[in-house]
Specification:
Blueprint (H helix, E strand, L loop, with lengths): L15 H24 L7 H22 L9 H23 L10 H27 L1
Length: 138
């Protein structure tokens, strides 16, 4: 029995596709946060301030995505991709909000910010992942 067997829809190695997915996910998060900053008259041209706003959510996303196996799973249905991405983002947004309100990062967040970042993050991340999954599985 020399044949390789794939089980559970998981990959072991970090391939090019996985790396691209991760970079697009982080890019979408960064764009969403920069868009929000620009709509609140905060200077997007201030790189350190923008980076301090983006970093807690990117850390949250990477940690939760890796712990959940998001990047080692191959989705076979759009529903599975939407459900998993939604759960990962809700958890990651909470981690990001906790980090943002900690002394480790400058700034804080009023309570509606948590609703806005979670809601819009769900829209863009789940939308992107559903679109990608439907393209790949068709």
């Amino acid at each position: 029995m020399d044949a390789a067997v794939r089980t559970g829809g998981h990959e072991r190695a970090l391939g090019r596709e996985t790396l691209v997915l991760g970079l697009v996910d982080v890019g979408i998060l960064a764009a969403l946060i920069l868009f929000g900053r620009s709509h609140h008259y905060e200077t997007v041209g201030a790189p350190l301030a923008s980076l301090e706003t983006i970093t807690p959510f990117v850390i949250g996303w990477i940690v939760v995505a890796l712990l959940s196996g998001l990047y080692t799973r191959r989705f076979t249905s759009v529903v599975e991709a939407a459900r998993t991405t939604a759960v990962v983002w809700i958890a990651a947004a909470n981690v990001g909000l906790i980090l943002r309100s900690s002394p480790a990062f400058e700034g804080s967040a009023v309570w509606p910010f948590g609703l806005v970042i979670t809601g819009f993050g769900l829209l863009v991340l789940v939308g992107w992942r559903v679109g990608y999954t439907s393209y790949v599985t068709s």
